[in-house]
Structure formats: C-alpha cells, structure tokens
UniProtKB/TrEMBL annotation:
GO molecular function, one term: DNA binding
Protein name: DNA-binding transcriptional regulator, LysR family
Keyword Acyltransferase recorded: no
Alphabetized UniProt keyword annotations: DNA-binding, Transcription, Transcription regulation
The HTH lysR-type domain, residue ranges: 7-64
Species whose genome carries this gene: Alloyangia pacifica
C-alpha cells in the first residue's frame, strides 16, 4: 500500500488527462512525457484507491465508477488550489483581465452583441475576444484557449461545469411565395420539401435531425451548406426550405416566411466552463453577467 501522502497534484492531473483522452499514449503526448511515466502515475493511484481505475473493453480504455469519483474529486481539488492562488477581490470597473468566449454563428448572431455591450458598460477595461468554437469548444477550454463556451452542447464530462441559459425550437425558413408559406406543414410534407441541410462541418448534428433519424425518416436534401450564414439569400426566390432555430430565423430577411417545424425538438443552449476558471472571481462575474444578459433575451 502506497502512503497517500506521497501523491501530488501531478498524479491527479495525469489521471484527469487519461480520463479525458481515454488513452495512455495520447495522454502522454498531451502531457509531453513518456507513456511509462503516465502508467507509473496511474499505478500509484490504483494502489492508493485499491481500484484498477481504467479497464480495457473492446479495444477501448474505459474508466471505472471509482475512477469517475476520483476524477470529480481531482477537478475540485485543483479548482480549490486555484482559489487559494486567486486574487481576493475583483472590481469590474477597474479589472483589465483578458476574457475569451468561444461560440458559433448562432450565438454570435443575437447573444454576443448584447453581452459585449453589457461587458463594455460594466467592465470597460476588460480585454474581450470572441473565438469560433468549431466543434472544438471543450478542447479550447481544456487547453486554456477559451474561458467560456456558449452553445447547444450535450457533452457530459466530469471535467466541465455547465449552466442552461436559453432554449429555442426549430422553424422552417422559406420564400413567401412557397406553397407551404403561412401554415405548419405535416410531417410528410416537411420531409418532402427541397431542404437546405446545414452540416456544421460534420462536427455537430442538429437535434431535429437526430429526432428524424430516430423515427426512421430522412429529408429530401437539395443543398448542403456548412453554416447558417447567408441562408436567407439562398432561400429567397427559390423553392428551398431551411430548418433553423426560430431565434435565428427572425433575424433573416423579413420578407421571408417562417413556419413552425413539425418535428418537435428543443435546442438547449448552455454556458460551459472548466475547473481552471471555476473559482476565478472575474469569470464568476462574467458568467453571471452573461447569464443575466441572455435571460433578458427570452
């Protein structure tokens, strides 16, 4: 039995990276060390907690239930240490910290403008940067490239904290001369539309698409595009139909028609952050301001 007092922060950090990467070799690459050093650190933890922590199943490295508990503890432990090191006070009027927010087109279209306005008004010296999440938002948080992630994410991981900030539903955007304009289509009518399908670069699947596929249906796709940017100009004067979040649809060309999507699916927008900034005074303040600002959009 190893003396638990011989453990250090690095052992728990190694554990959290292996847990995230699901691979000893990839964890070694991320940490810039050898696989043998990673294995040594995990072996010490195994002896302390009397548990394998990771098992191999069907060629995959999977965490045990005990490992999930230890990782959650490690995240809080590291966050607690950051709290001790953090500056004791935060004054938004004088703070000059750098804050990076990761999000995508949907969030930038109507959430980010009022968020920036409020941040600039209440904390005029903050240095703010908005970066594209592009399916890598969680990794950006872990790598320290972003402090806050905003979007409809469904990832469950002990390494992250999250708060629901907004819900939305889907609508169909079409030309006002489209035969279906002005009324909600039936499911079959909807499936038969000439659809503009937004792929998001293959990094994310819209919830309504998951619902359609789960029911054994498929869309009649006429055009695939990587993002909703410029979607109104593609729809205008055509028989194409785009399924987009309603809050985004109402920002498009007002001459276009918007009707309810017959596929019932909710978009849950969350604010996500990591243990690195969980106890940060400036980021606690920023998260509260972001949450209040988005709530005001409802």
């Amino acid at each position: 039995m190893i003396d638990p007092q011989q453990l250090d922060f690095r052992s728990f950090h190694v554990l959290s990276v292996v847990h995230r990467e699901r691979s000893f070799s990839r964890a070694a690459e991320v940490l810039g060390t050898s696989q043998s050093m990673v294995s040594y650190a995990i072996e010490k933890l195994r002896k302390v907690f009397d548990d394998p922590l990771f098992v191999r199943e069907a060629g995959r490295t999977l965490p045990t239930p005990r490992c999930e508990e230890v990782v959650a503890y490690a995240v809080d432990l590291i966050a607690g240490f950051d709290t001790i090191r953090a500056r004791p006070a935060f004054d938004p009027a004088t703070a000059g910290d750098r804050v990076t927010i990761a999000c995508n087109y949907y969030e930038r279209s109507f959430m980010i403008p009022p968020i920036i306005t409020n941040l600039r008004r209440e904390a005029p010296r903050l240095q703010i940067e908005v970066v594209d999440a592009s399916g890598q938002g969680h990794q950006r948080l872990l790598d320290g490239e972003a402090d806050l992630l905003i979007g409809p994410y469904r990832r469950q991981d002990a390494s992250f904290y999250e708060r629901m900030v907004l819900t939305d539903r889907y609508a169909c955007l079409m030309d006002s001369a489209h035969p279906a304009a002005g009324r909600t289509p039936t499911l079959q009518q909807y499936l038969d539309f000439e659809h503009i399908f937004i792929t998001y670069g293959g990094r994310w699947v819209s919830p309504y698409v998951s619902e359609i596929e789960a029911a054994g249906h498929s869309l009649s796709v006429a055009l695939r595009v990587p993002s909703p940017a410029g979607i109104d100009r593609l729809v205008a004067g055509s028989d194409l139909v785009a399924t987009v979040p309603r809050r985004l649809a109402i920002l498009q060309d007002p001459s276009l028609a918007i009707v309810d999507c017959p596929v019932v699916s909710t978009i849950e927008v969350k604010m996500v952050w990591s243990a690195r900034t969980h106890q940060s005074a400036v980021m606690r303040w920023v998260r509260d301001l972001v949450s209040r600002t988005i709530a005001g959009l409802a």
